[in-house]
Amino acid sequence: MSISRTTLYNLSGYLLPTLISFVTVPLYLHLIGADRYGVLALVWLFLGYFGLFDPGISKAAEYHIAKLPEPGHATEREKLFWTAIVVNFSFGLLAGVVLCLLAHLVFSTTFKMPVNMRHEVMESLPWLAASLPLALVEHVS
Fold this sequence. Notes:
Layout: H1 3-49, H2 57-67, H3 74-109, H4 115-140
């Protein structure tokens, strides 16, 4: 594959979500309102910080799997893959617990929002925390 084609794929990977957001953000604003969209943006920002819990296991596993010679190393590849899955899932569980503990404190004291929205955010936190292990495992596959 040529460098120009790869560059085009990378650029489209950055531009496509931006173009999609030009359509979806006004729809979100219309459907859920500006206040809820602001809260949603804060929750997404908060979740984004939990990407720090990805310790680079995915990249390390990819590197070591790619480095193995092709024939005869299927079991070693499998072990590397499943080890990366388990480690990332474990870090995701840890991140989920930290999210639940910190988010209640942060969202109840730091951010100003209507009481009914604070209630909605607090009810959604366990679901967000449960998504973190899956999000980190997704990095491996």
